[in-house]
Amino acid sequence: MLAALDAEKYTQSADDTFFRGTIGGHVRHCLDHARALLDGLESGVVDYDNRVRGSRIETDPVAAREEAHRLQRLAEHAARLAADLPMVVRILPTRDGVAVALTTSLARELAFVLSHTIHHNATIRGMAVAMGVPTPAAFGYAPATLQHLDSAGSERSACAH
Predict the structure, then answer these.
(1) Is the pLDDT confidence value at 86 over 90?
(2) Cα dihedral across residues 146, 141, 65, 5: positive or negative
């Protein structure tokens, strides 16, 4: 998907009823979550709320592709770790800035980052389609939705995707 976007489309604002921000902003947000998890492997603490907003990854699709490749290499290392590796995730449940620490595992956080990224990819897909940018057929769909669609054959039943 990143390869199909030039810098203009990547940073084009979509401030309408359904989509807010830019594709670059959504990509940066997702990569920040992957980075937070992978960076947390060393300390055992993941903090998704500590993000770098407005970075070059948000405005330059080439920088985003480079960061995605870098994170992929780190994820390949993480794939060799035990799924039940204990971790702590820090979250801000309210806007008062007081964080809460919860126990979790590497597998649970990998599942969260995957689900979170798919959710944002669905938004990116909508933004791209609205701009006339072609998207891969399965981009932005959850694996369970794709499996459901596969099992339904050519019949497309109504679902939230």
Answers:
(1) yes
(2) positive
